[in-house]
Amino acid sequence: MDTTGKVIKCKAAVAWEPNKPLVIEEIEVAPPQANEVRIKIVATAVCHTDLYHLYEGMPKDGFPVVLGHEAAGIVESVGSGVTEFKNGDKVIPVFLSQCRECHFCKSPKTNQCVKAWTEVIMDIMCPIDSRFSCKGKKILQFSGLGTFTEYTVVRQINLAKIHPDAPLDKVCLIGCGICTGYGSAVNTAKVEEGSTCAVFGLGAVGLAAVMGCKAAGAKRIIAVDTNPEKFEKAKIFGATDFVNPKDHSKPIHEVLVEMTNGGVDFSLECVGNASVMESALHSTVKAWGVSVIVGYTLVQSFTARPVDLISGRTWKGALFGGFKAKDGVMEMVKRYMEKKLMVDEFITHNMDLCQIMEAVELMKKAKCVRAVLKTSPQ
Predict the structure, then answer these.
(1) What is the rounded distance in angstroms from the CA atom of residue 295 to the CA atom of residue 56?
(2) Model confidence pLDDT, tens digit, residues 168-216
(3) How far is CA 280 from its chain centroid?
(4) pLDDT given for residue 1 in this prediction
(5) Residue 300 neighbours by CB under 8 Å, 6+ apart
(6) What is the pLDDT of residues 296-349, one digit of tens each?
């Protein structure tokens, strides 16, 4: 049945309020408006940022909402003005826009886009406008996407067209976690061949950062996590050492400084915890160390003294691994299709959308790297 121009009714996982379970509801998805694309979501994954919004950030104006931002699907219909996509295209939505027209997009110095800053309200991590409704109420779309659903509508500047043979239940992970971690090592830290690196946190983003450090030629990659069960997985992606802060009585940065004769060359914080960000900074060599903040938080603050940086350290942040959003996703999918990038190895659970709370609990308990939820057949 042709659904072009019509409202689609479908299943979605709705977060009606913070710190409460998601509920599978029938929602209405409006047709795409100008410069928008409606997508049939085939697979979506649970990312820690979704849990952050639900259980930590909990912005009072950020609910009700359909969470989810790491997904892949097929174009169902397009709005007026859309020339880059057509019905049937395989696509990955991206939370970071790339209009290719603003001064940020045209600059090689950043992967930011002016339109990303004007559309999504950071305090609630959603745009005010939405194409979702349920029971007569507007439902927000998390990060402008909202992928815990069978259908969604996104702006064309937040969408990447990918290889027609790409398996959507695999490459959906490239839409956030893999690009974020891998790119933070390669693009933002600019890890050098023969260097020593430390990666704090071994979730999907941290493992992708390990993979990026290895791809850049790092000689020693120290994986830091309080869960020793994660080291075997980290070794698959290239980690050479594992350090558990719980095994030491002294601060973890002191342990790493002693292990590396003065500090690591590069460190990446992939947890989203302010105290860990400080530890990551202090673990780098004072003269030239580079520490990258990859983990996300709006509810914590960190501190640093001028003397922590004055000798030559660099402390910087990375959003989406420094990749220009659309271009980066297309390039990373290409690498995967050429067997130059690990993706399948991140997936520990395959589930259905109706099992989303099981997936959430697995992630809360650190029992999975990525759970992929299938919403529709490819």
Answers:
(1) 14
(2) 999 999 999 999 999 999 999 999 999 999 999 999 999 999 999 999 9
(3) 20
(4) 72
(5) 273, 274
(6) 887 788 888 999 999 999 999 999 999 999 999 999 999 999 999 999 999 999
Dist CA 264 CA 254 (whole Å): 11
State whether residue 136 is helix, strand or coil. coil
Residues 76-90: tens digit of each pLDDT: 999 999 999 999 999
Q: Which two tokens stand for residue 56?
A: 């930590």
Residue type, 240: T
- C-beta of residue 42 within 8 angstroms of C-beta of residue 376: yes
* 378 pLDDT more than 70: no
CA–CA gap between residue 359 and residue 353 (Å, rounded): 9
Contact 151, 40 (CB under 8 A): yes
Q: The whole model's pTM is what?
A: 0.94
In angstroms, rounded to a whole number, what is the distance separating the alpha carbons of residues 184 and 322?
6
Residue with tokens 């996590």: 225
| Integer CA distances (angstroms), 39 to 7, 78, 149, 174, 321, in order | 13, 9, 10, 17, 25
Interacting residues of 238 by C-beta distance below 8 A, sequence separation 6+: 210, 211, 213, 214, 218, 221
Separation in Å, CA 203 to CA 103, 260, 324: 34, 24, 23
Q: How many CA atoms lie within 13 A of 195 on its CB side?
A: 26
- N residues, the chain: 378
Helix (H) or strand (E) holding 306: none
Cα–Cα distance for residue pair 135/27, rounded to 1 Å: 8
| Poorest-pLDDT segment among 40-44, 61-65, 164-168, 286-290 | 61-65
Separation between Cα atoms, residue 38 and residue 51, nearest integer Å: 25
**What tokens appear for 52 in the block?**
């952050």
